[in-house]
């Protein structure tokens, strides 16, 4: 009897200790190790690249509902969408919400960026020029004894990149339910690369390396334009930094690395915010030998390749010759991860203008711009064209919110399509400087919002939705990024930072409410119909009227 | 009674668990955290800099015994040294060993690098030139409104750097028992800095930044010459890399960072190997504002200072303007750690020659030098002057062993004092590329030893001694480095690597024994008396005769 008691006591003690260990040590460790999607989807790095299926992208094709007008921020009953939605998926739930299912009016010709015939003609010309070029180049390469891979090109009128270009309209770069976007991401992730080259702005520099002239050569010079077999084109930015590394505090934003994972994550965030102003981006493991060195026709590019002491194939920034191998990126031994961003239609057929951001930074060690010292800066801006009418200023504020969430201080310019005039949306290009520091929220990025104290009603409603547990921004981002070949795309602290920053955006809006009243701050998304072609007129969206 | 038993059982169980926790968790953790000296000396980082006492350097002043001729590798009984030696200190034991107490013959005038009168005259001229310069400069600075700190200079005939320069002789840079060396280390660690400037070779570059011309601008350009109040001069190399970071495998040795801690550790290792061919080096926390920015008279140097986004004072490499702040180093907010290496006497009074290392590397991505492809390379070298006679080749092999131990692949040139002619020792300058990777032993650095298969008898005996548990190299290094202000100077894996590499050196020697026989391999340290002045003749050291 006594023995039994002893045993019981011992058993109880050990069980208690075991339970405590389980609770305080093991569980937190496991939690820490698996920052994966809430549904327990596999995050194993071994699934990267080779056998990648785009299951995670199924969320991209939620239907484009047509009869929803009421906004239900509780997200409880959304009528017609109930049946088709996976309620275990926060992302599915988000995209099924009425706020995300506001119908765009029937699009007139002038509201689409590209006409089908024009684009096809352009495509055909490109292919035949390529074929002529290849005939000459193959001979030259054989004569010079240059090893190169030759791939057949295909003329495919159904190519995903064509569909993407054709889908661009005056409201956004793509519709969320456009299946061509899913295909485009798959293509950029897996299709054969037939040639590689420096990008146009790289070529414009002509290898210039005078640091007093070029603001930031360091990050730029490693990005490349890759052409796919079906003639789709993507900008490749190689990995420069580990996901768990933070940008050191002493580094200025304008010399910070470009991060391939920031480029990928920014696309997903933009889509989740329903802006759809970032061209599609996907992660890819690129074979630097087979897909760059052996496909490029650019002698300069070929000349920057070398084999590292560890026998990996590497290449370095063009203008920083030999001694600058610190800037090199290396495959392992050939495979290098990076981001692939879909190209927009060429400037010759779809011109864009680049406009300095009114809240530009000084890009010097000590300089300060007016907005940093003048709290009434926005009053001046509001008087100036094109910020004095239309929704340009509201779009700038959308962009500031987006940049604040990703922590991007490097938005010196923004671009718009010439065709859509001053009322067109702003392209959120080049987001690779984002996600550098998760532990710091750079409040100055929010200056347009905090100084102007206006925000689009539709934007505010979506931000409020994403701040709810039911949809939480970090959770939908984790789920969305879980489908990428390079998952986990973001380290967990960066996802957590999104929630914290979202909260700070909403706090900033509430401070504006207290200062000026809601009516002054929340602004109906406004389109000046007088400057638009006839077909564009019925544009005010249902939820934007208050 | 039953209660008591239960309590006892509970107490025993808890005690057992606590003991297990203590043994398996706490102790390893503490061990891991405190890789400090075996004698339990304080390793707290807070002791760095301000209240630093040179207790750890007491080992520097072991007596210079005069009557020891027999070599006792077991290190058990060493007669006269027994009483004065701290047997708890492996370093004390090592320096008390007869091998480390071989008397140098009385030095003739020609065997000393400097004559006292000549050096004093040089010193006086320097001081008066400085005073003239300061009068003019102070006026100019006041006119230009440049803030600067002015310090009094002192003329001190007993200055430690003077004593160091006077002690340099044809056998070594210093005697281990010279108390001036301990003072010199203390001075470099704590004396007021009165001016800072670029180094001479930096100035020779004139900010040149053409990477095809300059092999390795990246590391070089941040080193500075600092002048002390007593006119001693030291080369400051700032910290560029954390102690636990390893150089990535893809980085070529010639673009690797310079490491301040490698510079410090190399001085200690050289002293432990009893070469004494590295000028004294010590760690220091330098105030980059007070001791560099506000003391320099060089406008170029002042212009590269800036305040980082984290409000730290930083400066960057001269030739890599603005955009190259990646290369900057920053104080915190002003204090920056670095190495201080004592300057040798100026070239005008003690000229040196720089000679290419016969085992130089190619400094290109793909090039190979002859020694890398020709296994009989040493036979060629042995025919060539000055390697065909005297002990130059043996000195090269000493240097190769030293470089292999620290993992330095960057020994493109070596220097000798002109005065001592071809028989002078080789200076082991510029060791900051060492200690980059602890996990890799670069066997090619040992090529001079493995290809020539000769080694000085005295060197081999010391290496054998250091491979014994009784003296173990890593232990004496840890103890020696424990006295530096920036301790721990080396991360523990680097110390462990020293033992492993020492073992590989000895294995290489034994392979030579098997190939050629001991008699062929072990070489009496030879000095060709015919080329030396009369006073130098009685030079063969007792232990070097077999």
Automatic annotation (TrEMBL), chains A, B:
What cofactor is needed?
Mn(2+)
Q: Where in the cell is it found?
A: Golgi apparatus
Q: Which domain of life, per UniProt?
A: Eukaryota
Q: Supply one GO BP term.
A: enamel mineralization
Q: Which GO terms describe its cellular component?
A: Golgi apparatus
Where mainly located? Golgi
Supply the InterPro entries for this chain. Answer: FAM20, FAM20_C
Which terms does the record give in the GO molecular function aspect?
ATP binding; metal ion binding; protein serine/threonine kinase activator activity
| Positions bound to Mn(2+) | 430
Residues recorded as binding ATP, renumbered to this chain, are 237, 341-344, 415, 430
Keyword field: ATP-binding, Disulfide bond, Glycoprotein, Golgi apparatus, Manganese, Metal-binding, Nucleotide-binding
Q: Where do the catalytic residues lie?
A: 410
**FAM20 C-terminal domain segment(s):** 305-521
Question: Which family is this protein grouped under?
Answer: Belongs to the FAM20 family.
Would you tell me the protein name for this molecule? Answer: FAM20 C-terminal domain-containing protein
Source species of the chain:
Coregonus suidteri
